[in-house]
Amino acid sequence: MNEFEKEEEDRQTRTPMTRSEFAQLGDGEVAYIKRLDSDAAERLFPALSDAPKNIDLFALLGADGTPLALTDSRNAAIANAIENDLVPVSVH
Prior knowledge:
Elements: H1 3-13, H2 19-24, E1 30-36, H3 38-44, E2 57-62, E3 67-71, H4 74-83, E4 87-91
Parallel strand pairs: 1-4
Antiparallel strand pairs: 1-2, 2-3
């Protein structure tokens, strides 16, 4: 069996990841930064009320989508991720 055939056989016999396994991929290692408007921020952070209108906010989210922090500066979101030993990644 050549290398290509072995890789193809391995690919075909792999078990797909469960939703739970996929959600935990990157957990504790990666944080996503997402730009939000005030309405989206209030939905994502229920304790937040009367978020300022007409400004961009930046959410820091865990790999599984858990809200970690909210700020009005992308740089502050990046700094928060780095301070918590997480690799910041932008979500578009």
